[in-house]
Design brief:
By secondary structure, this protein is an alpha+beta fold. It contains two helices and two strands. Strands 1-2 form a two-stranded antiparallel ribbon. The longest helix has 14 residues. The protein is globular, with a radius of gyration of 15 Å.
Length: about 110
């Protein structure tokens, strides 16, 4: 299926043993703009935080516009009682995203 890239996104629906990923060495595989859509609690924020981390580790520069402040602690390890067991199930340990810079806008005149 050619979906075995080093930037792992998850597993194929219905086939937990079939990893799905993008190839970081092929720029055409990495979208310039990404939109995550889903219902509340579907995992959009968790996916995007993980994707940002993987892109950064692969040498990409990522700019994340966060008008809600949802990613203000992306540099800190996860501590959610809901997320920790899922990380453990996947053999992952909580870690914050390295080399993250948070820019907070101050008041500005229009």
């Amino acid at each position: 299926l050619h979906c075995d890239g080093d930037l792992r996104l998850g597993s194929a629906v219905g086939s937990a043993d079939l990893p799905v990923g993008l190839r970081s060495d092929e720029k055409a595989h990495i979208p310039r703009h990404t939109l995550a859509v889903g219902t509340t609690g579907a995992g959009k924020s968790t996916f995007l935080a993980s994707f940002v981390e993987k892109l950064g580790a692969a040498g990409f520069c990522v700019i994340l516009l966060d008008v809600e402040g949802e990613y203000a602690t992306i540099h800190k390890p996860a501590d959610s009682k809901r997320i920790l067991p899922e990380l453990a199930n996947r053999g992952l340990t909580p870690a914050g995203v390295k080399d993250t810079y948070l820019l907070v806008p101050t008041t500005a005149d229009a």
